[in-house]
Design brief:
- The protein is of the alpha/beta class.
- The protein is built from 25 helices and 19 strands.
- An 8-stranded parallel sheet has the order 12-11-10-9-8-15-18-19, with helices on one face.
- It is globular, with a radius of gyration of 27 Å.
Length: 611
């Protein structure tokens, strides 16, 4: 390894430590003998890949306006990156460089010093990644709100040689970028859904205060295997195998399948819930009715309905979801922050990570309909109708009524193709992303369903044949649960901040609406207000409480602004109306949170005085 390559790799892997395992050995072993550099041009054989010549690439046809994110299709010697940055000087927030060839990348970084570029936070590097796996990198990139707010203001810059050589690759990459944006949008949720979750949190204060946190379970089951059981239609086939593994793995069930497992003589160690709708309440009431002595431990986000948590009679644990405002809960009363993707099974996966389990098996994680019957769930589900066979017309009607996107087919675990919907597919993509971020091996042992990229499909028997017996798994949880730190949560500092913010936002809105001002004066005020909004974005409390709960509507507001702000057809009156709408949006969310805090505080004080 020459000194330049060594210096570059050190800088690159310092920035991207998770890529080291995937890339380091491949780069060091890459065959670079077919490449050469002559007169600041890089050749692959006799074909010139890149050149410093002024006329080699022209960026004059690319629009400057509304571009905050740049995608460079192909690295070469970096001439295109430099020209693009010069062309979009002062406009672009982030530049993503996509280089599909590890061999070409290895050669170039052995010849030219890129260490400063690798360290520059404006530049983001996706090297030698399978096109479909770019989704995971894009999703990680967009999890930063400031980037998500400008994700529609992007532009792909095609390298004149590399983008043509890998045309199909970059076509898929662009599709994966669109999929990541859709997933981020879906993850932000709507205002009403976000505020409903926040209302549940505030009304679940007693649940938070009186139960222990998942933080206590850190590495409780280190190196013990875990099986995450979901309620997909193939679960029926896995029941016999699961019965034999109850003392060889930590079994974590999603809420929907707890009753099914108990009826089949399988008592999970843990069950998880995250949903804000009626589903968990129905599941838990059915469980208590049939199995009043159930001692499975419930791990729940406080976002769940209070009556659903009350319906569960077994031991309970609290976990804060990785929403910003839970940071303030954690500071007062530590319960543990858990990062989770969209579904309850993703929460189960992260629970296994907190437990220290390894490896982790997915069972019943179909993410698809059963091909012959079009059932969406396992038989015996407490929720009426979910486990029944359906016609294609009925499935399409359900997808439309439940806003699940559309019906289509994907590659299956056991079959060539299986039917799924847009929401299931988004969960699948998130599992693919999770697999690139978690330190343990994940096996998809689902007896059917959709194939999940980055997760190896395997049979339960093959994976578990050498597993050892652990006789004390349930007792470990029971003993640990006795350690409860209980105290009351105080909201005065938060409510004072939100009340002050609500007043400030209302004053801004009134200033813009003044009838005595000219259009020019209103535009000056609007400019100042927009600057104040941008300044507010630097306040973590504003991001955590207001933007988090303004959800998809605020995400769309910011993206529309990013893509229209320099548009000449965006008139002064339109800008005023647009900014005023944004102000009303955040002011309304802020005031609703203030009212909710006061309402719950008043109720708690009343109950205390009665006691």
């Amino acid at each position: 390894m020459n000194a330049i390559l060594e210096k570059n790799l050190k800088a690159f892997f310092k920035r991207y430590p998770l890529s080291k395992k995937r890339l380091e050995e491949k780069i060091q072993k890459a065959s670079t003998q077919n490449f050469s550099i002559k007169d600041e041009c890089v050749y692959e054989g006799s074909v010139m890949l890149d050149s410093s010549a002024a006329d080699f690439v022209s960026l004059n046809s690319y629009k400057l306006e509304h571009t905050k994110l740049l995608f460079i299709e192909g690295l070469g010697l970096g001439h295109l990156v430099r020209k693009a940055v010069d062309r979009f000087q002062g406009r672009v927030r982030d530049v993503l460089i996509l280089e599909p060839s590890i061999e070409a990348f290895a050669f170039v970084i052995s010849q030219k010093d890129f260490s400063e570029n690798f360290a520059d936070p404006r530049f983001h590097w996706i090297i030698g990644q399978d096109e479909e796996n770019c989704f995971a990198d894009f999703l990680e990139f967009l999890r930063v709100p400031e980037r998500a707010f400008q994700m529609d203001a992007f532009q792909f810059i095609a390298h004149p040689v590399i983008s043509k050589k890998y045309q199909k690759y970059f076509e898929v990459v662009r599709d994966e970028w669109d999929a990541a944006r859709k997933q981020i949008r879906r993850g932000y949720g709507g205002i009403e859904d976000s505020l409903l979750g926040f209302e549940h949190v505030v009304r679940n204060l007693d649940f938070i205060e009186s139960n222990p946190g998942i933080i206590l379970t850190k590495d409780l089951f280190q190196k013990v295997p875990a099986i995450i059981v979901s309620a997909g239609p193939s679960l029926d086939k896995s029941i016999p195998a699961l019965k034999k593994l109850q003392d060889k793995a930590v079994i974590i069930a999603v809420d929907a399948c707890l009753n099914i497992l108990l009826e089949n003589g399988i008592s999970p160690h843990a069950v998880v819930t995250i949903e804000r709708d009626m589903g968990p309440k129905v599941f838990f009431e059915a469980t208590h009715k049939k199995f009043p002595a159930n001692d499975t431990h419930l791990f729940a986000f406080p976002l769940a309905r209070p009556d659903a948590l009350a319906a569960y009679k077994g031991p309970k644990w609290v976990a804060y979801r990785d929403y910003g405002y839970f940071q303030y809960f954690e500071q007062q009363l530590a319960r543990g922050m858990i990062s989770s993707s969209s579904s309850v099974a993703h929460f189960a996966l992260r629970t296994a990570f907190c437990f220290g389990c390894s490896p982790v098996l997915l069972v019943g994680q179909d993410l698809a309909y059963e091909p012959k019957t079009l059932r969406s769930h396992a038989q015996g589900l407490a929720y009426e109708g979910w486990d029944k066979p359906k016609t294609e017309a009925e499935v399409k009607a359900n997808i439309q009524s439940d806003q699940l996107g559309e019906l289509f087919y994907v590659e299956g675990n056991k079959e060539k193709q299986v039917p799924t919907n847009s929401t299931y597919f988004s969960f699948l993509k998130e599992f693919s992303w999770e697999a690139t971020r978690l330190p343990f091996k994940i096996f998809n042992c689902t007896e059917g369903g959709a194939k999940i990229p980055n997760i190896e499909s395997a049979s339960i028997a093959d994976v578990t044949s050498q597993w050892k017996t652990h006789s004390d798994l349930r007792q470990r949880l029971s003993d640990l649960r006795k350690k409860i730190e209980s105290k009351k949560l105080s909201w005065k500092e938060t409510t004072d901040y939100l009340q002050s913010l609500s007043t400030k936002l209302q004053e801004m809105s009134q200033a813009m609406a003044s009838p005595d001002l000219s259009l020019e004066q209103k535009m000056q005020i609007a400019t100042l207000i927009r600057q104040a909004q941008v300044e507010l974005m630097k306040d973590q409390r504003y991001i955590c409480f207001v933007i988090q709960n303004a959800g998809r509507e605020y995400l769309d507001f910011e993206n529309e602004w990013a893509t229209r702000v320099e548009d000449p057809s965006f008139s002064a009156n339109e800008r005023l109306a647009y900014l005023d709408r944004g102000l009303h949006l955040v002011q309304g969310v802020t005031q609703r949170m203030v009212d909710l805090f006061h309402q719950v505080d008043s109720s708690r004080q009343k109950m205390t005085s009665q006691v």
